Amino acid sequence: MEEKPYKSLVECQIHPGTKFGKNVRLGLGVVIEEGCEIGDNTFIGHYSVLRPFTKIGANCKIGHYFVSEGHNSIGNNVRLGVSVIMTRGAIVEDNIFVGGHYVGVNDSTIGKAKPEELRGPVIKKGARVAVGVTVNPGVVIGEGAMVWAKSMVTRDVYPDSVVSGIPARVR
């Protein structure tokens, strides 16, 4: 019998075409759909769902109950907290921290956009996003920026700036 390229306590639902790096660890009940790729030394927490064409880099720690709506990219050395929702089309670059209960939004029409009109948020290299943050469609959080807890980011955040509030503003 062929050894699986991942370790899990309970059988997960994994699409046979999934590409795994070395030392990938999956928690209980993880679901991975077609076209997904997971880099070396990455952990994905319990009951997470990776919809089609999710790419996760190396050395990532993905919290329990993570949802990737697919067609998105997560870089290397990324830390995502519990119950993070990465909307379709989101881009998360390298060396990012995102606290728990983050929600990225990709549809400003509230359900009326066609798939090609969806614009996921972009989190640039080295940015930090605290717990409970919501980011609107197409918003770019600049390189090295920091978003404080419970903020709602409605417009682009400049590199190396600190924002907070509803709506988030430079502090």
Tally of structural domains: 1
Report strand order across the widest sheet.
Answer: 1-4-7-10-13-16-19-22-24-25
Name the CATH architecture. Answer: 3 Solenoid
Structural class comes to mainly beta
Gyration radius, to the nearest Å?
16 Å
Strand content: 25-35%
CATH class: Mainly Beta
Uncertain segments are none
Mean pLDDT: 94
At CATH level 3, the topology is UDP N-Acetylglucosamine Acyltransferase, domain 1
SS elements, strand count: 25
Largest sheet: 10 strands, mixed
Principal-axes shape call: globular
Helix content: under 10%
**CATH level 4 superfamily:** Hexapeptide repeat proteins
- Give the terminus-to-terminus CA distance: 58 Å
**Order of helical and strand elements:** EEEEEEEEEEEEEEEEEEEEEEEEE
How many alpha or pi helices? 0
Which terms summarize this structure?
171 residues, mainly beta, UDP N-Acetylglucosamine Acyltransferase, domain 1, ten-stranded mixed β-sheet, seven-stranded parallel β-sheet, globular
